Amino acid sequence: MPGVLLFFGYMSQIFAALAPKRNQFDDDDEKECVREVRAELVSLGGAIILAVAIVLTIIMIMVLMLPMVNAFQLTIVILLTLASWIYLLDSCTERLRLIDHSVEFSAVFSRKRHIPINELQAMFLVHEGFNLDRGIESIEFRRVGEQPDKFSLGPCWQRHKLEAFLHSVEEVLSDPHLFDEV
Questions:
Q1: Domain range summary for the chain, segments of one domain joined by +
Q2: How many helices (H) and strands (E) does the chain have?
Q3: Distance CA 84, CA 89 (A)
Q4: Widest CA span of the chain, in angstroms?
Q5: CA-CA distance, 79 to 59, in Å (whole number)?
Q6: pTM to 2 decimals?
Q7: How far apart are CA 57 and CA 14, in angstroms?
Q8: 2-181: CATH class
Q9: Is residue 155 within 8 Å of 16, Cβ to Cβ?
Q10: What mean pLDDT comes out for the span 1-30?
Q11: Tens-digit pLDDT profile for residues 39-85
């Protein structure tokens, strides 16, 4: 019974996070600089990855209880289960920060990457997934005389928070046409 209550508690948080929100850029008086933004487990992508990880964990437990499972099958199930939990952990710990005149991307299992903002020519938020509202995102930073830097983001991001962060970078650089969506 507590597991069911916990499940419905998580689901209510997910649906609350997906509810339409008032755009913070509608009113100029309410603009504020967003210096840090994080991916969250309470998102549509986070819920899907969590569900996959839970199902794989249940399958792994069932396989461990079966007497007629060979080592190869058991190894495959254990590796898939561990990979799903590691991917979920990495996806929900991603963050973007605006520090020391650069944008920093970090996650638990990913290396930190820095992009100096004084060299930026353009920033693109690219939708690479399911639909235009809720898909997997990537951010491309184009710099003067350099190859574009592309950060592939996990499924646990909320788009309105990413947009607010990128608009903050625009405000810091005083360039209102730096950010674009593809």
A1: 2-181
A2: 4, 8
A3: 9
A4: 67
A5: 12
A6: 0.73
A7: 21
A8: mainly beta
A9: no
A10: 55
A11: 988 888 889 999 999 999 999 999 999 888 888 989 999 999 999 99
